[in-house]
Specification:
By secondary structure, the protein is α+β, with helices and mostly antiparallel strands. The chain contains nine helices and 15 strands. β10 and β11 form a beta hairpin. The chain has a six-stranded antiparallel β-sheet, with helices on both faces. The chain has a five-stranded mixed β-sheet with strand order 1-6-4-5-2. 32% of the residues lie in helices and 24% in strands.
C-alpha cells in the first residue's frame, strides 16, 4: 500500500506567509474566486518553496491567483504542495511574451522611450550570446526579423528586474499578450495574423527569484515557468476544512488523515508519463 511519504508533500500553511514572485494579473482573480465559491473545493493546490531565511515564509512558484483568491475569501490557511528549492524535480525556465494587435513601430518607440535603457539592433545569434553571458537584459524581435537587445545602465539584480518591468509596462495595456516558448518569428507570424513582436526574457536562478521575492521585488507577470515532478493535481480539498475554527496543527493532522483515507480507498493515481488534461 502506498504511504503518504510517497506522495508530493502537501501541507496546510498560513496564507499570510505566502509571497508572490511575479506581478499578478488582477483580471484573472474574480473568475477564480467565483469558481472557488461555486465548487467549495481547492482543486489544484499552489506549489510553494520555503525561503529558509527564518521568517517562515514561502514563495509561490505556481498558483499565485489561487493563493490570492483564497485570501480574498477570508481564509487564513491554504493547502499547498511544498517543495525545496534544490529539489531535483524542480526547474525554472523563462516564458517569452508574444504580442499582437499593436503596430510594431509603436512598440519599438515605446520601449526606446524608457529612460537610461539602451535598445540596440543586432543579430539574433549575437543577442542570444549576450543574454547567456548576462551582458544583455532581454531581446525584442519584430515581425520581419529585426532583433534588438536591451542593456540597462547597471547590471545588478534589482536594476535588471526594474527595467524588465518598465519594458512590460510599455505594452501590457496596449497590446494583446500571450506566453510562449517559441522564438521563431516566422512561425509566430503564421500563428498570430496581427503579430506585433516577441519579447524574450532572461533566465534567472531559483535562489535569485527567492531573494527578489523576499525583498518584495517582483518579476513581470508571465515571465517565469516553474515545473515540478511529481505534481499534485485534482486534489479537490474542501474549503470548509481550511475555514474551520481549528489550529494549524489540527488542520494539518486532518489533512494527513484525509490523504491516507484517499490512498486506502485507491483514490490516488500516479501517471509516470507526460499527461494532457482536457477538463481544465
Amino acid at each position: 500500500m502506498p504511504k503518504i511519504r510517497d506522495l508530493p508533500f502537501l501541507a496546510i500553511l498560513p496564507v499570510d506567509k505566502l509571497l508572490l514572485h511575479e506581478r499578478h494579473d488582477q483580471q484573472r482573480s474574480p473568475t477564480l474566486l467565483n469558481n472557488l465559491r461555486a465548487s467549495g473545493v481547492l482543486r489544484n493546490p499552489p506549489i510553494v518553496a520555503p525561503l529558509h531565511d527564518r521568517t517562515g515564509r514561502y514563495m509561490v512558484l505556481d498558483g499565485a491567483h489561487r493563493s490570492l483568491a483564497v485570501q480574498e475569501l477570508g481564509l487564513v490557511h491554504i493547502l499547498a504542495q511544498v517543495v525545496e528549492p534544490d529539489d531535483p524535480g524542480l526547474a525554472l525556465n523563462p516564458w517569452n511574451h508574444v504580442l499582437w494587435g499593436l503596430d510594431p513601430d509603436e512598440l519599438l518607440e515605446n520601449v526606446q522611450s524608457i529612460p537610461f535603457l539602451k535598445l540596440l539592433p543586432c543579430t539574433h545569434e549575437q543577442a542570444c550570446r549576450e543574454m547567456v553571458n548576462k551582458h544583455a537584459l532581454g531581446m525584442l524581435r519584430l515581425p520581419y526579423g529585426e532583433t534588438f537587445v536591451a542593456h540597462p545602465p547597471t547590471n545588478d539584480l534589482f536594476t535588471r528586474v526594474n527595467f524588465l518591468n518598465a519594458i512590460v509596462d510599455r505594452y501590457k495595456d496596449q497590446a494583446r499578450m500571450d506566453r510562449t516558448n517559441l522564438e521563431d518569428v516566422q512561425e509566430l507570424n503564421k500563428l498570430y495574423p496581427h503579430f506585433t513582436g516577441l519579447v524574450i526574457f532572461p533566465r534567472f536562478r531559483i535562489e535569485e527569484v527567492q531573494y527578489l521575492a523576499g525583498a518584495n521585488c517582483l518579476l513581470p507577470t508571465g515571465s517565469t515557468r516553474f515545473t515540478i515532478s511529481p505534481r499534485a493535481l485534482h486534489v479537490n480539498y474542501p474549503l470548509a476544512e481550511l475555514d474551520a475554527d481549528k489550529s494549524l496543527e489540527e488542520k494539518d493532522a486532518i489533512l494527513q488523515k484525509w490523504l491516507q483515507e484517499r490512498l486506502n480507498n485507491k483514490g490516488v493515481r500516479y501517471y509516470a508519463e507526460a499527461t494532457f488534461l482536457f477538463d481544465e
